[in-house]
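[Discussion] Sanity-checking designs against the backbone

I'm trying to build intuition for which residues belong where. Below is a structure token string of 355 positions. I'd appreciate it if someone posts a full sequence so I can compare it with mine line by line.
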């Protein structure tokens, strides 16, 4: 799968842009604030129906303009698809494939698999559990429509149950209905998350060992309330607590991951370089995992990933992605000479866009 062309109107700082991309490596080079990352964000929009930088669609419209339009030409299985996303202030977002509007945006997720690596990914290690759950969900949802559907349903029921708990008087029968629905969807999600972690960690370890030259050992621990108790029993056991707190305090919405470096918590013991190596390894493992499941080569977006990495680790990353295991790649960098020096080390065709 490749992205052949991208056109933008009033998207962030791009009033009017049109880009024909190379099937191998595309480099976007320029100063900070020039709009390089916004190009990657536009590509991300066309894959996930939203921005990775700003979830509020209206904030992605060029200042003092009334709308934005993103359009991309994708080549998949030797067929071209035109995908577009348009948004006008005060109106609904319209997402189309080959001029046909999607009734549900979730139907589009996973059709054009994509993996983005950016400085924001440090939040996977440093932030709260919701970011790590989002990482798991973002991988599985790109190849498992049932998982995404169950996740949407679970979150909807969870919200309704929490609203019910906030009421001073309610019917316990109504609560039981929500419990049964949470258990049904939650158990499905839990099983797939557990299976995913078991399959994913060996792939992650392989990439981290390559980038770090096997100087450190890593591990990942999946934490879930459902590992030791049935979901139904947890809801019954914690009902009194839920009523006091007025929200659901147990379930797969509390799942988390612990990351270890040489048996110590990575968040506390890892250097910035080690943490970044781990984060990049997670994303490259995500790429391989999705490729195995979908039989497609996802687009790989590398946004300013070489900062805080020594030359050896930078070189090993470039060598790693420059082989037949990876498809079309997009790279942003601030220095033209540095980018060209990196590209000259590899045996691959590329194009540089200067901003």
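Best answer:
Here's mine. Compare freely.
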């Amino acid at each position: 799968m490749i992205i052949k062309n991208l056109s933008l109107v009033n998207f962030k700082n791009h009033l009017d842009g049109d880009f024909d991309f190379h099937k191998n490596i595309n480099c976007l080079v320029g100063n900070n604030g020039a709009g390089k990352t916004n190009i990657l964000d536009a590509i991300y929009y066309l894959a996930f129906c939203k921005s990775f930088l700003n979830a509020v669609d209206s904030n992605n419209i060029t200042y003092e303009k009334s709308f934005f339009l993103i359009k991309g030409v994708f080549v998949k299985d030797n067929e071209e698809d035109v995908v577009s996303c348009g948004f006008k202030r005060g109106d609904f977002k319209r997402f189309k494939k080959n001029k046909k509007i999607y009734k549900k945006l979730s139907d589009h997720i996973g059709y054009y698999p994509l993996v983005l690596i950016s400085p924001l990914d440090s939040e996977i290690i440093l932030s709260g559990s919701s970011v790590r759950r989002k990482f798991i969900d973002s991988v599985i949802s790109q190849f498992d429509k049932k998982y995404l559907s169950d996740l949407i349903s679970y979150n909807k029921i969870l919200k309704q149950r929490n609203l019910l708990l906030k009421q001073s008087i309610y019917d316990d029968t109504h609560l039981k209905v929500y419990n049964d629905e949470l258990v049904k969807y939650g158990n499905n999600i839990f099983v797939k998350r557990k299976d995913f972690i078991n399959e994913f960690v060996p792939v992650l370890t392989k990439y981290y060992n390559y980038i770090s030259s096997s100087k450190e050992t890593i591990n990942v621990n999946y934490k879930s309330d459902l590992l030791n108790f049935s979901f139904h029993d947890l809801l019954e056991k914690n009902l009194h607590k839920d009523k006091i707190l007025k929200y659901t305090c147990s379930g797969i919405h509390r799942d988390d991951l612990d990351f270890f470096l040489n048996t110590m918590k990575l968040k506390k013991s890892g250097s910035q370089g080690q943490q970044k190596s781990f984060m990049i390894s997670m994303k490259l493992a995500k790429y391989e995992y999705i490729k195995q499941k979908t039989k497609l080569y996802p687009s790989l977006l590398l946004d300013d990933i070489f900062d805080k990495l020594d030359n050896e680790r930078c070189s090993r990353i470039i060598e790693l992605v420059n082989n037949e295991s990876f498809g079309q790649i997009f790279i942003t960098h601030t220095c033209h000479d540095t980018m060209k020096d990196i590209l000259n080390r590899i045996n691959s065709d590329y194009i540089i866009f200067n901003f």
